[in-house]
Amino acid sequence: MSYDSQNIFAKILRAENPCNKVYEDDATLAFMDIMPQAPGHTIVIPKEPAMTLFDLSGAGAANLIQVVQRVAAAVKQAMQAEGIMLMQLNGAAAGQTVDHIHFHIIPGSMHNLGKHASSGNVADDLAALAEKISACLT
Ligand code: 5GP
Q1: Using the 8-state DSSP alphabet, how is residue 112 labeled?
Q2: Residue 123, pLDDT score
Q3: How confident is the model over 55-66, as pLDDT tens digits?
Q4: What average pLDDT does the segment 24-44 reach?
Q5: Which listed residue (102, 104, 111, 116) is catalytic?
Q6: Which residue, among 15, 46, 49, 16, has the nearest Cα to 29 in the 3D structure?
Q7: Distance between CA 77 and CA 17 in Å, rounded?
């Protein structure tokens, strides 16, 4: 299977689909998940077209985890979360639903986690949350 440039995150990267942006640089974009598993659920993606971690270049992976570290710190502060979960799914067999590598940053505890990628999840004001998290980036 090869990279499908019509996947949802590729469309967000090309600004064909909207997102509530938290952070962007030359290689990376972070935005709010529209079906959050907890309030503040944020997604970080590289701009490099790669389906899974195994398709991403080493340099891309190194950059991505550094941005995840920064954005996760901002999510932690903005959401006043004691704990932060990172999730990164590779392949449909693992539950991956969007075929562009990404990290999930989810505040809170795995014991109170909402269902994954479920349209039943309640999204708070994502624009306000994106702004709040963005303001905590250092
Ligand atoms: P995966 O299952 O691939 O690990 O995660 C994909 C994530 O993307 C899910 O948490 C899902 O809620 C989120 N998602 C799906 N479609 C969209 C969309 O159009 N916009 C945003 N912001 N998130 C999306």
Answers
A1: G
A2: 84
A3: 999 999 999 999
A4: 98
A5: 102
A6: 46
A7: 28
Ligand 1 centroid vs 10 CA: distance in angstroms? 12
Spell out the domains of the chain, with CATH numbers in brackets: 8-135 (3.30.428.10)
Q: How far is the CA of 80 from the centre of ligand 1 (A)?
A: 23
Ligand 1 contact via 123 beta carbon (within 6 Å): no
Is-catalytic flag, 116?
no
**Ligand 1 in reach of 89 Cβ (< 6 A):** yes
Concatenated DSSP letters of 10-69: HHHHTTSS---EEEE-SSEEEEE-SS-SSTT-EEEEESS--SSGGGS-HHHHHHHHHHHH
Q: What are the pLDDT digits (tens) for 103-129? A: 999 999 999 999 999 999 988 899 999
Burial class (CB in 10 A: 0-12, 13-18, 19+), 15: exposed
CA of 2 to the centre of ligand 1 (A): 19
98 Cβ below 6 A of ligand 1: yes
- For the purposes of burial, counting CB atoms within 10 Å of the CB of 32, is it exposed (0-12), middle (13-18) or buried (19 or more)? buried
Nearest atom of ligand 1 to the alpha carbon of 121: 12
